[in-house]
Specification:
The chain is of the alpha+beta class and about 325 residues long. The protein is about 45% helix and about 15% strand.
């Protein structure tokens, strides 16, 4: 006869303690005039237009449109430049702001003074500590042709500007809306801080050792979420210059806190017999569908197929428990 021995990690009993006694701090809400001015200035900057320049040559602050070919001609060592990098890189209609900090060293000096249809060839030397590692220490030849020169024009901050960007009678009306929006953002940020403190206090109530599987799963989830955000920003995680082992280790402490608070919340939800209604689930699926740009029925079918409905219900049940705790907590403004 064969004998098998199986080892399982189990979740220890969780005692949430007295959950009527939480005291949470909430930062005061205030909107400074400087913050309103800054937001209005950002609106101005986003509303800037680019007008064609005529009758003069390119100068600092202009935006210049170029057909550009870049070719690495030498590196810090003869073998330092990969063969594929030695191939010319040609771009059409590239817009460059003269004077921008990201421009290659010496590039601005070469294109200042050019006119539309001018053609120029020049070589730049990149320092060995240049931020773009593949170009650090290289000599690069540029061939450029000027297609257009434009000047960035920022509109005046006045009543006409307010009318142009929305349904505002004048600048005062726009300023009032900006102030209200900033206040709403501050309220939401304050709410997040209160919830974060509650999660921290919940986690502190767990004094037993956690199953390693739960912590590892939460670390995995956090890493996957970070990778997803990188991909949304069109950043290749493999080329992001991130030490993933160190990153995973940095996630362990917040992962442990998240697991501890979730265990306490789950126990409170069990004791209070909290569970999401069908209406709660339908509303949550509608939010999922809206974010994904797909019909709610399709989203639900996919979640059911992948076993994801349990996660939705767990999340809603925990949210109910959090709302219950917040309604009973003493929240002080400090």
């Amino acid at each position: 006869a064969l004998t098998f021995t199986a080892t399982f990690e189990t979740v220890p009993p969780i005692d949430p303690g007295d959950y009527e006694t939480f005291t949470l701090r909430r930062p005061p809400i205030s909107v400074e005039e400087d913050a309103i001015d800054k937001a209005l200035n950002q609106l101005q900057e986003r509303s800037a237009r680019f007008d064609p320049v005529s009758g003069r040559l390119a100068e600092q602050g202009d935006s210049i449109v170029l057909d550009l070919t870049r070719e690495v001609v030498s590196g810090p060592k003869s073998t330092a430049v990969p063969p594929e990098q030695l191939k010319p890189d040609t771009r059409k209609g590239v817009t460059i702001e003269i004077g921008a900090v990201e421009n290659p060293p010496g590039f601005d000096d070469e294109i200042c003074g050019l006119d539309v249809d001018d053609v120029k060839e020049f070589t730049l030397s990149y320092p060995v500590d240049h931020a773009t590692s593949e170009l650090a220490g290289t000599m690069v030849r540029y061939d450029v042709k000027v297609k257009a020169i434009k000047r960035r024009i920022v509109p005046e901050l006045d009543d006409e500007f307010a009318k142009d960007i929305g349904d505002f009678e004048n600048l005062d009306a726009l300023r009032t809306r900006v102030s209200e929006d900033l206040k709403n953002e501050a309220e939401q940020d304050a709410d997040r801080q209160v919830r974060a403190e509650l999660v921290k206090q919940l986690a502190e109530r767990v004094t037993v050792d956690l199953p390693e599987a739960l912590v590892s799963r939460e670390v995995d989830r956090r890493v996957e979420e970070f990778v997803r955000r990188l991909l949304e920003q069109h950043v290749d995680p493999k080329k992001a210059n991130i030490n993933w082992e160190e990153f995973r280790e940095q996630q362990r402490k917040p992962a442990q806190e998240a697991v501890c608070s979730a265990l306490v919340i789950d126990e409170i939800a069990r004791r209070e017999s909290l569970s999401p209604s069908e209406q709660d689930i339908e509303s949550e699926l509608a939010r999922y569908a809206q974010r994904a740009g797909r019909p709610a029925a399709t989203v639900r079918a996919k979640l059911e197929q992948e076993g994801g409905m349990a996660r939705v219900e767990t999340g809603l049940r925990r949210e109910k428990a959090m709302n219950l705790l917040l309604s009973r907590a003493k929240i002080i403004t400090v």
